[in-house]
Amino acid sequence: MSQDTPCVAVCMIDPKTRMCFGCGRTLPEIARWHAMDSAERLAVMALLPARMTEAGLAPIAGSAKRT
To answer: Please, where are the H alpha helices in 1-67?
Structure first.
């Protein structure tokens, strides 16, 4: 089964926001990603662009991919 992922291989955590600079996920979200069901992953992915904008991080457009 394929799993959607917002990962763009820029895996660095911003110490201020505690979010990944590349995808906007938190460390707990990254750690649980493969255990999440599809609906939960899609719900998190829907939040990421606004989350990154609010944190002052620039989302990387068109970054979601399948692994």
So the answer is: 27-32, 38-54
